[in-house]
Amino acid sequence: MALRTAGSVLVVFLWSVAVVLGQDGWSVTYTPQSICTLKGSTVELTCSYTYPRGTVTSTFWFTKNDAEGNPVSLSDDPDYKARVTYHKDNKNDCTLRITDLRESDAATYKFRFITDQTGGRFTGNPGVTLSVTDLQVQVTPYSVVSAWKTLTCATCVLTGDPTYIWYKNGQIVTDNTSPYSVYPDAADSYSCALKANEDLHSPAVCVRGESCMNVTYTHQSICALKGSTVDISCFYTHPSWHNVTEVSWFNKWESGVTKDLSQDSEYTSRVEYHRQTDKDSILRITDLRESDSTEYKFRFTTNEARWGYSFPGTTLTVTGFQVKVTGGHQDKTLTCITTCTLTDNPTYIWYKNGQHLDESTSPQYKYSASSNYEDSYSCAVKGHEDIHSPAVCECLFIKGQIEMYLGTGRDRTGLQSLKYFHMTIPLYCKIN
């Protein structure tokens, strides 16, 4: 109770500072003034502002100044440019949204606005302090002699009083707040996640000793090409006194019942299990289909325990290619479109009339349109040259419209006018 009271006094004090700085009708009020949120998530920083006269000509948020001491708008900062948007619910609201949060985003954010009046610019102090945390299970013993442990999930107190999901040996055991008290077995591992953000989970940790049940996936998500082969892999551990009796991969589960993919008619002829050591497993799926897009999980059983089915696995998205054309009449840009970003930063290959044209790490290719309307273009990625996009024809880039002049005449006002009509001529080309 004392801590909560002290916190309330602190908030009131900070707000009073903002009011003092906002005298003479200038003010920026932040709500709240400190936020702790999760790495990889999205956050909104909100404020409202007032000014005595004039019209606001510019508004922006910033965290740092340039060499001349001028604030740098986040929308111009390369570290933020693609991840920030400004929103307004009404005239005097200012909301900053930051997506895909990084630990480096932890900073103090301030809002600045400029009016058309002489000297009409104002920065709201003290700003909003943002802390960004990874989820990480921290273990504290009740006492040296007690087997009971206290588990906490985050390094700062997350804003909004969230509900945590706790996993024991890969299985959900409770929805609870943090900290969480447990009486673990020596083989037990624990991990946590936020409710509604289960994909952003903490690594599993051993609560007693150094060896416990655990599965770590190499990739949280994979984007692969339709028709190709993909490897989904993981590493697993268990106490040395346990013997593994069964391993399986699955993508369907209900009430604790899972179906081994090697026994699933949709996969039987397309899946293989591989291993490089006695502590890893690789699921290989060939001839990928778009229907294979789902989450895949690994499960193993020992003579004394079993890894659960609710711990997040690897999400696979299967995509095809499609060429999109943008640009003017002459200068064109071709983009090799996929429904997800292909894993491992592939090299894109461009083909003209079925012949190799160019290679690039960018999915875009710029060129000047030719007068040969029979030309066609397609794309692929290195290592999968046998999987092409559908070819797009040069003729489809040109509007075949012809105006045909018919003659002159007189309209109802007696003025001379031109009469004409439009006719669209389809252009044909050969797809190689």
From TrEMBL:
PANTHER family: B-CELL RECEPTOR CD22-RELATED (PTHR46013:SF4), VASCULAR CELL ADHESION MOLECULE 1 (PTHR46013). Residues 126-208, 312-381 form the Ig-like domain. It comes from the Eukaryota. The keyword Signal applies. Keywords: Signal. Residues 1-22 form the signal peptide. SUPFAM superfamilies: Immunoglobulin. This is Ig-like domain-containing protein. It comes from Salmo trutta. The keyword Transcription does not apply.
